[in-house]
Write a structure and sequence with these properties.
GO cellular component, one term: nucleosome
Largest sheet: none
Organism: Talaromyces stipitatus (strain ATCC 10500 / CBS 375.48 / QM 6759 / NRRL 1006) (Penicillium stipitatum)
Protein name: Histone H4
Order of helices and strands: HHH
Shape: flat
Helix content: 40-55%
Number of strands: 0
Subcellular location: Chromosome; Nucleus
CATH architecture: Orthogonal Bundle
Oligomer: single chain
Structural class: mainly alpha
CATH class: Mainly Alpha
Family: Belongs to the histone H4 family.
CATH topology: Histone, subunit A
Length: about 100
């Protein structure tokens, strides 16, 4: 009796992640908590999409700068692939937003 092989189509269908806007995961309540911490008491309902847009642009800038730091710190024998806390603190200081409590060496 020949040996049975499992075909490629026997594992079930793949699940794909829906293309829902990820920024909607930043809820109104999360934005409200952050603004309360910043000292804002009252907000218009139309401010939430604007805050999401500004947050997205800020994160793009930070991530772009982090990638530049990783690329510039690579040596010919070793390419860095992990972002450290020091990298984030360095990038934020360079952008003019110092993070207190972290002392770069």
């Amino acid at each position: 009796m020949p040996q049975q092989h499992r075909g490629l189509g026997l594992h079930g269908s793949r699940r794909r992640r829906s293309n829902r806007d990820v920024l909607q995961g930043i809820t109104r309540h999360a934005i409200r908590r952050l603004t309360r911490r910043g000292g804002i008491k009252r907000m218009s309902a139309s401010i939430y999409p604007e805050i999401r847009f500004v947050l997205k642009e800020r994160l793009k800038t930070i991530i772009r700068n982090l990638v530049l730091v990783l690329e510039s710190s690579a040596t010919p024998n070793h390419e860095r692939k992990t972002i450290t806390t020091t990298d984030v603190v360095f990038v934020l200081n360079r952008m003019g937003t110092p993070v207190y409590g972290f002392h770069p060496n």
